[in-house]
Amino acid sequence: MFYRASLQAAAALASLFLLAGCGLLSDSGSEVEQKIVVGTTSEPSTLDPAAAWDNSWELMRNVFQTLVSFPTGSTSPEPDAAEWCKFTDTTSTSYRCKLREGLKFSNGDKLDADAVKYSIDRISEIKFKGGPVGMLGSLDRVETKGDDMVVFHLTKPDATFPFILATPAMSLVAPSAYSRHKIRSDGKITGSGPYLLDSYKPGNRAELVKNPDYKGFADRKNDAVTIRYFKESAPVVAALRKNRIDAIYRGLTAEDVVSLEGNQNKDSKLQIVETVGADIRFLVFNPEDPAAGKVAVRRAIAQLVDRDALVAKVYQGTAEPLYSMVPKGIAGHTTSFFDAYGDPDQDKAKRILAKAGITKPVELTFWFATDRYGSSTAPEFDELKRQLESSGLFRITLKSKPWKIFQEGFTKGQFPVFGRGWFPDFPDADNFIAPFVGKESITGMPYMKDEITREVLPQTRKESDRGAVSKQFERAQKVMVDDVRVLPLWQGKLYVASGEDIGGGERALDPQTVMQLWELYRKASW
Questions:
Q1: Contacts of 46 (CB under 8 A, 6+ apart)
Q2: Residue 402 falls within a domain, yes or no?
Q3: How many domains does the chain have?
Q4: Most buried pick, 25, 215, 238, 314, via CB within 10 A?
Q5: What is the rounded distance in angstroms from the CA atom of residue 289 to the CA atom of residue 286?
Q6: Does 2 reside within a domain?
Q7: Is 332 left (phi over 0), alpha (psi -120 to 50) or beta?
Q8: CB 394: neighbour CB atoms within 10 A?
Q9: Which segments constitute the Solute-binding protein family domain (predicted)?
Q10: Residue 245 is assigned to a structural domain of this protein
């Protein structure tokens, strides 16, 4: 698993969603068309699933099918293109799916077992740099049995494999329309999802219409959706306020949310619902740095950081403190860092350093990306600097670079301490532990911890009942607290605001925080 490289979170909020009404009803109240217009700053980087491990998933979820998916309210994969899927052994190494009858792609081709095998195999064969091939590390081979049965043989037990199959990266494509050896680049899509891509203008809009041949779990509550792409937050918010669009997902600042929540009290037509998100922010410490490499320094910082003040001052309550790498809402979540350190305490931090023989202020440089996690990132690091320096125990220098240069820097081990974000590929504790440990840690620096990589993770991946492995994940988090190689700071929140004429907003975000556009609908005239 690697970081979904292009996914951006305006104002460090992974998933902000706003709805406002602009009527498409006749004066008599009769329905003339169930069409919804949404705006977003989350433009796809590709239309080919074999190259997608980023914000392209937003569009793909709505125009492609996967064998299993996440219906609203579910945190476990459930059948979509498949009639059923299950592990057929006790070690979670053989996963079998039976396809629904009568499936076909938008070009008329049959969606059968061979098409499924082709779709998954081409991801491994193309090996697109920055693409989802890394998600298939446990896959040995794909076998077909007749037209409607697919068997995935794994090299090792991996109960998370169904979650991987549920990601839009594993979308099913028509073999006749997609080369086995290269990415499709003609701006078109041949899928079998709830919608067809009627037209696409990069940087401008995507026009989706209901797929008459779709067979899957999605209960479509509208006939068509127009997605308008914006480069920045201000224009998309302006379009919403002027009723030029019905909805916004991704692209709002914390200030936008606070402002709209305030308007809710003044305008009864605006409704806002808040729920917990799964995107997280954290600090990464370089173990090779003379200062950050000392566990006492890392523990002292963990003892000083005031998460409550951070989210209150910088994010105005649109995020919440995080005391575990596994966020609230995911089975296995704990408050392990709070359990270990409690409230911020300068005296305790001083004693931690003194015990290690550190009596002078520790000088450290903190790095962050200027164009990755939203406009609140710089104020966030200003606040972290203020908190640490006010203790008299640290002297912090802040530096920043654009994401591309920033990424090159931390992968080469150039930064003592730096900020990162993580957006889950699937809602399971494994996806918040495994990516951070081992030789290929997404932090850019190996984190070799046998207790986690050789004991905890292999044990949990044998168990298909994910709720039964919470204790093992709690153990992994305790190990991470002791080492403090990463320090969780906060997790984002999701916001749904709607006008009186738009419904379904509370159901439109799946557990991956990917928009399920079919849930939106225009209410009858009032």
A1: 52, 56, 183
A2: yes
A3: 1
A4: 314
A5: 6
A6: no
A7: left
A8: 23
A9: 77-440
A10: no
The enclosing domain of 396 has a CATH number of 3.10.105.10
For 213, residues 6+ apart whose C-beta sits below 8 A from its C-beta are 104, 106, 192
pTM (two decimals)? 0.83
Residue pLDDT, tens place only, 180-216 = 999 999 999 999 999 999 999 999 999 999 999 999 9
From the number of C-beta atoms within 10 Å of its C-beta (0-12, 13-18, 19+), residue 330 rates as: buried
Q: Give, as one character, the DSSP assignment of residue 453.
A: I
Q: Which residue has the tokens 């476990």?
A: 76
Task: Report the distance separating Cα 213 and Cα 227, nearest Å.
Answer: 22
For residue 138 the two structure tokens come to 């446990």
As a whole number of angstroms, the distance between CA 394 and CA 225 comes to 52
Q: CA-to-CA distance for 264 and 346, rounded, in angstroms?
A: 41
> 3-state class of 512 per DSSP?
coil
Residue 316's domain spans which residues? 278-492
Contacts of 492 (CB under 8 A, 6+ apart): 9, 12, 13, 14, 15, 277, 278, 279, 280, 318, 319
Phi-psi region of 71 (alpha: psi -120 to 50; beta: other; left: phi over 0): beta
Closest CA to 462 of 158, 140, 153: 158
Interval 481-523: pLDDT, tens: 999 999 999 998 877 666 678 888 888 877 667 889 999 999 8
Start-end of H helices in 135-185: 161-165
- The tokens for 123 are 């991801």
Q: Would residue 372 count as lying in a domain?
A: yes
- CA nearest 50: which of 105, 117, 172, 132? 132
| Stretch (H or E) spanning 279 | strand 271-285
Q: What is the DSSP string of 28-58?
A: T--BS--EEEEEES---S-S-GGG-SSTTHH
pLDDT at 73: 74
**pLDDT digit string (tens) for 42-92?**
889 899 999 998 889 999 999 999 999 988 777 789 999 999 999 998 888
What does R_g of the chain's alpha carbons equal in angstroms? 24
The single-letter DSSP state of residue 110 is B
CB within 8 A of 207, min separation 6: which ones?
Answer: 197, 198, 199, 200, 224, 226
